[in-house]
Design a protein that fits this description.
The chain has 146 residues and is mostly beta strands. The protein has one domain: PK beta-barrel domain-like (M1 Pyruvate Kinase, Domain 3). 12% of the residues lie in helices and 38% in strands. The protein contains three helices and eleven strands. It has a seven-stranded mixed beta barrel with strand order 1-6-5-9-8-7-11. The protein has a three-stranded antiparallel β-sheet with strand order 4-3-10, with no helix packed on it. Strand 5, helix 1 and strand 6 form a beta-alpha-beta unit. The longest helix is centred in the middle third of the chain and has 8 residues.
């Protein structure tokens, strides 16, 4: 069983822009994060990006904070790219999510690429839908459910 952790919880009231780290958020069943512009979309309710992916960009001399790539959850310790569509993740003590998409088509140029110069979400981000809601906060465990 693979266990990682939530590094940051990020939301934004507008689409196609950086999300702000808010420390904690409420995941609503079949919706996403309360107050986030992507909530309610059928396949991409919540986006996840590994801190390890962000660190690759920092290695290029950029100072990047969580949410810069418009991810809802910045994770650590889980190989998100090893997951498959249909895999489930327990996030915190209550929330259960299912992987619905790996990577994405990026708008050219997206606001993130314009600001940072490159976006890792199209190749290294994943998307999930919320099967069971609950509060999620920084430091919470993320567990891959086999």
């Amino acid at each position: 069983m693979t266990v990682g952790r939530v590094v940051a919880v990020c939301v934004s009231p507008t689409k196609h822009d950086k999300k702000e780290s808010v420390g904690r958020g409420l995941l609503k069943t079949d919706w996403g994060f309360e107050g986030d512009a992507h909530a309610g979309t059928p396949r991409r309710q919540v986006s996840l990006l590994a801190a390890e992916s962000v660190k690759k960009m920092e290695g290029r001399g950029m100072d990047l904070e969580p949410g810069i790539f418009a991810e809802n959850l910045t994770t650590e310790g889980i190989d998100l790219m090893a997951l498959s569509i249909g895999d489930r993740l327990r996030i915190g003590p209550q929330a259960l999510c299912e992987v619905t998409q790996i990577g994405k088509e990026c708008l050219h140029p997206c606001a993130v690429s314009a600001r940072v110069g490159f976006c890792v979400m199209p190749t290294e981000g994943i998307f999930v839908r919320v099967l069971e809601g609950g509060e999620v906060k920084e430091g919470d465990a993320i567990e891959v459910i086999p």
